[in-house]
Amino acid sequence: MNAQEERDALTLPPALYDRALRMLRESPDGLPPRRGYSLAGRREPGDPELSWNEARTAIRAALDPLPGDSATLHHLFARLGVRNRHSHLVHSTVAGLPLPAGQWTAARALARELTGTGTTVPAVTAGIALLIRLGEAEDIPCLSTLGLLRVFTGPAVDALDRLDRQAAGVVSLAAGPHDGLRPLVRALWAGDQRAVHEELTAFHLSSRRVGAADARRIAEAVRLPDLLDRHPSDTALLARASRLLVWMGCSQDDPAGFLAYRDAPDLYDKVVTRAGLLPPGLDNHATLVSLALDLSSGTGVLLDWPPGRRTALLESLGRLLAEPRWSSTADIAGGEPDHEVRARWIRRTGRRPFALPATAGGLRIEVVAGDPADTPRVEARILIDGRPVVPAAFTRGPANSPELLLEDGLLRAGPEPREAQLAEARCTEGCCGALYVTIRRDGDQVVWENWRRSMSGPRDAPLQLPPHRFDAAAYDAEIARAETDRSWSWRTRTVARLIKAGLIEAPDLLSTWDASRGWISSGLEDPDTTVVTFWYVPGLGSGTPDGADSPLQFRWDIPDDGTPPETQAAAALRRLADEDPKTYGRVCGGTRKRAEELGYPWPP
Question: What is the value of pTM for the model shown?
């Protein structure tokens, strides 16, 4: 160590692990704030910023071969210009380092030195990344503490996932965004099992705020199957466990975490076999229908089940919900409009999961509209040999809607190969990709082949789906059945379909008003509303558009008036023909500047 390095060593800031411990001790309630502790205020040297390639090269030079001690890596990172902003590159570089078994002991020792004494984000990140590969039980306390620092929460939880999923769940929740879970987290952090039980049944959060990942983390943190065994007659706990299981299996979220949850089959088993203890009511009925949908055609099918067990659980739910004390709950809902919406959903959907054979062969398309309380998308689930294709192959979003897959005959097999998009990312395809397959007819068979994702991330497993061959006659019959089956739909969804068909047939209804058709469907927040959107560009109808690259989007909400869908759709099309829809629609997209230029108020 030269003279400058000796001076630097005397003025090193405290270890980040020690800082996290101090912050935790000083917290008023002994817990980190929402989203964890921030290291804001740590100023970095103002040297020229490395390009991505330069940073990658520098990080590789510092880490390969691994230095013998923490101080050496700190100095290498400082000299090469590796800063906090490069922590993701540090993580990915360590993940890809060759580590022969003979180097594991030294690498593990370095990792523990970096995580325990490291003073910079890149150095500690390197230590955590090594522990993701080499960590042992003794590393859990240090990783749990570092995970409370916002910059390390993700990698620390990844490392804990391999060592102790309960500890990973606690850290993930403690540094998470939900204030409503704070009492539960406090009980978990204190190890107070009685309080954990009480707080688990007491918190009030919906699936709109708790996603699949958080629900799984809650189940892991409280050891939910064990908790159910300790309280076998607690129906409030059983109802909460059932709801968490529904949220975990939600097809709108990334299925990878749920499929990695090893206790999921056991949790299904305990919930379904005890479901008869639940008091019949709208909430519990809707929850059990949702579980049945997942067991029949959702992500739950893909879990590692003992032979025949999933089928047995599904049949058990079918028998229970057919009992008069349950089947009558959807007939006497009454009260709030939301209750009526949910009751109608149960009446439409309640028996559908039991009509689908749990071991169906060939191709099956099951249109699923989930519990309205969870504001789900309607999806056309595609099952091949009884297994849902989309959650097995694509983690970024659910299967596409029946309007996209079935209305225009996208899945029909014609004389020429056709590529079909089966699913799109929850954001957009341009952001996170989509899942495609090519469909072609080959004599008396239909072939699905050339599966592809339009984008893949570093955590995506390679897509290795083989070609599938179907008997052409059976395939055509299934596509025809799915295209004509409307039993899943409801009035406003049908109104939307008829309005869309009318505008396709008569596009001048909108072009007269310099408008073009947007998306048309039932409302997401209010399924008893039909939503018509359109784009407005001055001069569009005359063929001389002004500002075609900056259209303004309008939205028209049509409440359900109780009349037949055909009557409502005809009335909507007449109004579009007679009145400028910009006078009764409202701006919902485009830009504020464009809206002001054209004289329309921008939404608050």
Answer: 0.88
